Amino acid sequence: MAQVAAPRRAREATPRTAVAVVAALVAVGLLLQLAEPQRVPWVQTFFLVFGSLLVQALPFVLVGALASALIEVLLPVGTLERLATLPKPLQLPAAALAGVAMPICECGSVPVARRLASKGLLPSAAVTFMLAAPVVNPVVTASTFVAYRGREAMWTMVAGRFLLGLVVAVTVGWVIGAVSRDGLMKPNPEDRHVHTVELGRPEPRWRRFFLHLGGDFLFMGRYLVLGATFAALVQTFLPASWISEVAAMPIVSIAAMMLLASLLSLCSESDAFIAASFVQFGSSAQLAFLVFGPMVDLKLATLYAGTFRPGFLRTVVLAAFGTTLVATMWLQVWIG
Amino acid sequence: MTDTVVTPSPVPAPAVLARPRRVSSSRLAGAAVLGAWAVLFWWLLLTGRQDFYLSTRTQWVVPVGATLLTMAALGRLATVRTREREPVRRRDAWAMAAVVAPVVLMMALPPATLGQYSAGKRSSFASVGVVTSASDIGSGDLTLVDVAAGQTTPEGEAALAARAGERVTFVGFVTRYDDTPADELFLTRYVVTCCVADATIAEVRVVNVTPGAFEPDDWVEVTGAIYPIGREVIVNAERVVGVDRPDRPYLTP
């Protein structure tokens, strides 16, 4: 028994780990004070862009986590299960629209979709909900509005993201079709968004609220820090000429922005600020970034792989990519 | 982090309930991360450093963020005692450190603004699509935003052209390109809509400058007559003096 438990314990942080973490952070602070790296222009630019992205986006992530925690604590899951009683042709659009009422991040929508499917909702409708919710929910809409406020394309981006998000989510659900739950989902996927409940009796509601709030923030926070790092590096080093060349190519610019969104793996509650910073790209390419990114990115790929059967990720990537590309190409003709 | 994962306990429920509540290291670490970010937001607010990251129109996120983060940190701290054993995995401890690292970074670095380095990588203000009305450009004191936005529409361009020869005073930093003559400089200012990540540039070409008097990234105040010529705006300098960086270094459209 001791031999089995030992490796598990070895992965746990010890007081020594805590000291090492604090020491590393202090060392970083001292190094920055002594070396004055900001004297190097590119370093200064990187730090400024990186810091500004985080300062701007983190409150929105927290608002999203707060709304998510409230829903988790207050809203019965059965509210959405009523969708199962609708006629099948209406289930996909209804599931997509239900996303409006669920201000949750893309990571949070995966276990919710699985739970809904396990309780009788058409699996394709559950997937539609999972893809739509991170794009069309009110927190995301509000952050998109703030990010584009003052620009000519503001309403195009806000309304376009909402409508195109619904269209792409419904299309992916339609492509998945009438597959059974067992045919779509793995039987016992690891659930990363189940929250702590004290064994024997549930924790009081207010304690669960704060646990959800902090847990969601911490989970999303590291991906946001990573995404802001990538985005700041891109903005610091990517030659303006390269961006201008890609941005000027009608279809390539859209595909490039979708690829970028997948690589950056940003939270949908803050990605609008980063999309808006790619001013070299037209509105349609930025829209593709905002719609495709919350549906398919690197961090979601791991969650999908743990939750769904092999082949699901490929289906979602191809269907979401194709639909977003075609739709935004049409928009590119109209709005640029 | 670890608190989002339930590990089935082999201990029967009654035995767990009999345990005393102890401090959960996972919850405590999470509260510390939230607290660190709350401190950063309060610090940005109290020191005015928010001006170096955000435009004036989005600075409301700082007090809102500070309040929410404080609330979240205190709330999590209140839940810190539990009967379950909730250790922090090493991997998660370092992930939390990575989330806190930007706090250290922003508080350790001295205040700085975007300078000449990124001017060449940024779009001009005119390409962003922010429009200032021709009536704003045609009357009152001309600002750098007016001048740059005047190039976005034919009406704005005409309104700007009508003010040729007027005396203007602009504050900005010095930018020089490879082909900039010694007796000229570009007076540049970043225009920020939301945060520095979306910064674009507004700049005018300043002629009749003493060669070698100013280096790139120096902040200067230029007074002189303005001459919009096509897509370029030239200021014939009467006076160029070095000034301190403004408290609010970025312009808001």
Instruction: Give the end-to-end Cα distance of chain B, rounded to a whole number of Å.
Output: 40 Å
Radius of gyration of chain B: 26 Å
Q: Tell me what portion of residues of chain A adopts beta-strand conformation.
A: under 5%
As residue ranges, the low-confidence spans of chain A are 1-6, 188-199
Distance between termini of chain A? 65 Å
Per DSSP E runs of 2 or more residues, the count of β-strands of chain B stands at 7
Query: Could you report the average pLDDT of chain B, rounded to the nearest whole number?
Result: 83
Helix content of chain B: 25-40%
Greatest interface and its residue counts?
A-B, 84 and 89 residues
Structural class estimated from helices and strands of chain B: alpha+beta
Overall pLDDT score of chain A: 80
For the CA atoms, what is the radius of gyration of chain A?
Answer: 21 Å
Q: Tell me the major beta sheet of chain B.
A: 5 strands, mixed, barrel
In percent, how much strand structure appears in the residues of chain B?
Answer: 15-25%
**Secondary structural class of chain A:** mainly alpha
H/E topology pattern of chain A = HHHHHHHHHHHHHHHHH
- What kind of assembly state do the chains in view correspond to? heterodimer
